Structures are given as C-alpha cells and as structure tokens.
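To whoever is covering the structure queue this week,

Two jobs came back overnight. Logging them here so there's a record in the thread.

Job A:
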Amino acid sequence: MQFTDLGLAPEILRALEAQGYRHPTPIQAQAIPAVLSGRDVMACAQTGTGKTAGFTLPILQRLQTCKPASGASKPTTGRPPRVLILAPTRELAAQVEESVRTYGAHLQQRSLVIFGGVGMNPQIAALQRGVDILVATPGRLLDHARQGTVDLSRIEILVLDEADRMLDMGFIHDIRRVLALLPAKRQNLLYSATFSDDIRKLAHSFLHDPEYVESERRNSASELVQQTVYKVDRERKRDLLIELIRTHNWPQVLIFTRTKWG
C-alpha cells in the first residue's frame, strides 16, 4: 500500500514525497481511513510506529475538504481552532505541531503550540490572529481558558495523544475540565501505548462507538526500533555506557535510570 491509495489531497502527498515517505506504516494504514470516516478512534500505538502522522494526515485532509461550522469567524483572521490536540509534555506537543506544519506545508491551515514555562502574551497574540489546529499541554490550555484567551467552542476534532502518560502524570482532572469546555458534537481520537483499565475507563467516558486500531501485539515493541541487550555487572554499567557512546560516536543519547540519585 502507498499513501496515494488513502485518498489524501495532492498537497499532502507532495509534503510526504518531500520527506521521502511513500508507504504508510501499519498504524497509519489502519488509522488514516478510520479518522477520515469521521468515527471516533481508539488506537494502541507504540513510539516509533508513525502514530503522529496517523492522526495529523487525516486531520489535515478533513480540514481541507470540510468547511468550518456555521457561525465561525472570518476565514483569514481571528478564527477559533477547529482541532485540539492534547499532549502530556511540551516536548511532545512541539513535535506534534512540527509534524502538522511539515505535512501541511502546502495547505492554508494555521497551527499553534502552547505550553507552560514560557510567557503567555505571544501565545495570546497568536490565538487572536486565528488558528485551525491547536496543540497544547492541559495545564497551559486551562490557563488560557480561565483568562478567556482561547475559544474552544468550535472544536470539531479532539486528540488525546499518549493518553497513558497523561494519566501517569496526574492530568486526569485537567483532561476532564478540558472536555467540559468542548462542544458535545465532535470527533474524538485517543492514542495510547497501553490500554490499561484506567485508559479504558477514560475512553468510555467520552468516545462514541469508537473504531479500535492496533497495529501490533499489545505492549510489544515497535519493529522499527532496534533493541540490544548487554549483560554487565552493576559496577561496570557506567564504563560500558561511556564506551558505547565513544565507540558509536552517538551525538544524542537518552538514558533511563531507576532513581534520581542514579
């Protein structure tokens, strides 16, 4: 299967071609038609499977082909967002918004990312200029909602990305507050690496007859990620790590440890 088989607009296909992408990953091949159909989607996707494109591509397609709901602001300035994507961290939110801009490079949709730890005034100014796709962390989005600087009344599509991480980070109450601010009629997409009981409980509270998408065996590792195990004594872990970094000349390394002290 190729992206040309999925009914995406020529402008989106051009952007994909520029990135060297021709064939969708399994999660993309299943999720894109499901999102395009307008149904709610509950997707289980691991890191490295291409899940972000699995929802950004069909969302861009839907915005391209569907006119805004009646009563929306002017098409060029001051328009409220039609899509809201919630992400657990500023880093992930920034990555998602970058994907939106990359795949929507030849489209007219505007996107914006907002998160905490930075000033609100530039975000307020950008919101006032108008945006179609808003990517946000829950806390900062609620800050804007409390100040009346974001209009969520025209949201047509909601995405909860990495929902399991959001629950682990204690965002459940913020998520419910955000849900209460959105129109009752909308398309909902939930993406999670695992489907725990808590995730299923959350999903059942706002998804309507969702289509279930799972590209791999549950909780399995992505086939696109190479994994290697080194058996080493605890005392020699640091020496091994240093040697690996030097030998492979890795410019960026993410290290997980069991404790802050470690």
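Job B:
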Amino acid sequence: MHGHRYLHYDVFTRHPLAGNQLAVFPEATGLDPTLMQRIALEMAFPETTFILPPETGDTDVRMRIFTPRRELPLAGHPTIGSTFALASEGVIGPDRDRLVFGLGIGPTPVSLEWAGDELTFAWMRQPLPEFGPLIEDEDRGGVAAALGIDPGAVTTGLPIQVVSCGLPVLFVPLETRRAVDAVTFELAGMRPIFARHRLDDLPVFIFSRETGHDDATAYSRMFAPAFGIPEDPATGGASGPLGAYLVHHGAVSPEGTAPMVSLQGVKMGRPSRVHISISSSSKDGDITSVQVGGAAVLVAEGELYL
C-alpha cells in the first residue's frame, strides 16, 4: 500500500467549516484517471483535484477535476482552492502574480493577490460566455414544479436559459430569497423539459436578485445530481455564466458589473461568497472578460492508503 497525501480546503470563504469543500492531491503523478475517479467518490466532496506536471509550455501545472461521478473540463472552486494549496505547498510564492493551470478545457490563467508571503485572493479567468437555449414560457410551470415552488415565484422579467463559460448550466431566476430557500429540486421532473430542448441533465442554478442585509448581487443555490452533487455550496463554474447572464439581460447596471458577489450555500449552512468580474466593450457592449474569484482556507490534511 502507498500513501497519497491530500489537503482539505474550504473554498470561497475565509472561515473554516463554511464555503465549499475540496480535496487536493498535490502530487498525483502515477494515479490513473480510473483511480482518480474512485478516489473522488471515496472523498465524497463536490470535487477532488489532482495536480500533475505541466503538459504544455504555456501552463505551470496540469490539473484534473473530478466530482464523485465524472471528470469536469473546468470548475471554479477546485481552481481557486488548488491555487491556495499550491501556495501552501510552496509551488508558488509572492514573486508570482499569475498561475496558469492546464485544465481539460485548455490553459486557464489565475491572477494572484498576496499580503506578504500569504496568498489572500485568486481570480480565475473563464472562457467567454455562450448563451444557449431559452426555456419557453409554457415550460415555466414544469420548471417550477421540478423545483417544488409555485410558478408565480419564477421571475417573469428574466429568461430561464442555458449559459456556459466552459460548462453549460441552466439558470432559473426567482423573485425572492425565500423562494430560493424553499426549492426542493427533483431531477426527474426536469428531465422531460431537458429532453424537449435536446439538453443533457444539466446543473440547475437558481438565484434571486432580492437584496438583503449583505452586499450580495445574487442569492443562489445550485443542484447537479447528475454529477453526483445533490446541492453545491459554491459553484465558481456557474458564477461566471451568472455574471454574464445578468449583464447580457441588463439585470445589473454597467457600473455594477465588476465586482459582483453571489451569496451561495446559506441554506446548507455553508455560506459562500463567490466574486464575479465581468468586462464589456464600451463600443458594442459585448462581454470581453469573465473572472471568478475568492479565498480559501486549509482545514485539514490527510493521507489515503491504496
């Protein structure tokens, strides 16, 4: 048996036992993808990452990301959390203001902010958004039923739409934070709607723009049971598309596009603050940059014997 060391981070928070859990294996050379998938299922966190030597000259490290059920080409909280792990391991230091991961989607740069020798914040650049299918008005009742809420709780001024910055997600706007908290998601109820629109079983991201006693731009939850994640406390891979969606549909004013905050995971007891920065062309309004950022805190270390 061989020991494989891992680091346990809580991501998109500065406080232990909040944010989104992540297991990082900082020295994963020799582990094949089948074993990586089995380890991710064993860890039972939303995602587990495996750090490998770079495969191309334009990247610093190769990283593979697994949910308990599948490998992902890109994800936000694993990228931010693994950046903090590499800083903790001494792979990067305050002489660096940039790190480039080799992900399944390709080179992915991360900007670094330091306070002395301590990494305090990281910004992940995501691919530009692709705006996918709109769910027609006649399906809004079916979406509401799958969410276990009244159809009147779904916002009428914004569309239900698929948006992707590397990973497609279905966005459902709700009127109030109370409606967001009331959701009880049923994938079986969504599958007929997905099928009518020729969509796979996508993650479903629900949010409200209702303000609260905080600075959040959106109050949100995310469900991805097809990925082995019944509910995710913080979803960076969906937060970039969320920001793009809000800008694209005029839900935030131009001066409110950078930065924004998605407050996620509150219902789960794991509040998470996902920062979002969207840049647009002053000439035609097209989105020119999508970034997602946050902090992470180390809460445990361990060794897996295989």
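Note for Job B: The first strand starts at residue 3 and ends at 11.

Please reply-all if you pick these up so we don't duplicate work.
Q.
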